[in-house]
Specification:
Elements lengths: L9 H9 L8 E6 L5 E5 L1
Antiparallel strand pairs: 1-2
Length: about 45
């Protein structure tokens, strides 16, 4: 997914932090929205 959307690893990590997520393991799902923002559903 990262390559397809031309993202580097720090990009999604930053988006998770901005959504209040400390660890990717605590994410149920994350969606790259059409506007470029990431929506996160925590477990």
């Amino acid at each position: 997914m990262l390559r397809r959307h031309k993202l580097s690893q720090p990009d999604p990590d930053e988006d998770l932090r901005l959504n209040g997520v400390a660890s990717p393991a605590s994410v149920r799902s994350a969606t790259l929205e059409r506007n470029g923002e990431v929506s996160v559903v925590k477990q």
